[in-house]
Specification:
Elements: H1 21-28, E1 52-55, E2 70-73, H2 88-113
Parallel strand pairs: 1-2
Helix pairs in contact: 1-2
Length: 117
């Protein structure tokens, strides 16, 4: 399901570094090109442009977003890891799980808030 055509989406975090190569790969599997994207801080997003904030943090610290936006919290474990014992295939599995969980939640949210007529 494409959300960007109907709903503007912005992504940011509390400690931006780079777009994870595994995220690029698993999103490419769905035809989404993240190669031109860059990691950014929540501080760079104008609160006036945001209607809903969805935080995904589970164990880590959630970024603070100022503004009057509605807030939803979906505690999804961060698939990224610096553990050298995790194989590339396991990393892909972790990223696919996070991607698919987020996608399912967005689809449900989209159907609840924007029912098809």
């Amino acid at each position: 399901m494409t959300f960007g055509d109907r709903i503007p989406v912005q992504s940011a975090g509390s400690e931006p570094t780079q777009v994870n190569p595994y995220a690029i790969e698993v999103m490419h599997e769905l035809g989404v090109d993240l190669t031109k994207h860059h990691s950014k801080s929540v501080q760079t997003i104008d609160p006036v442009t945001v209607g809903t904030v969805i935080t995904l943090c589970a164990e880590e610290v959630c970024p603070v977003f100022m503004g009057k936006a509605r807030r939803l919290h979906w505690p999804i474990p961060d698939p990224a890891s610096i553990d050298p014992g995790i194989s590339p295939e396991e990393m892909l599995t972790r990223f696919r799980t996070a991607r698919d969980t987020i996608r399912e939640k967005l689809e449900r949210l989209s159907l609840d808030e924007f029912p098809q007529t």
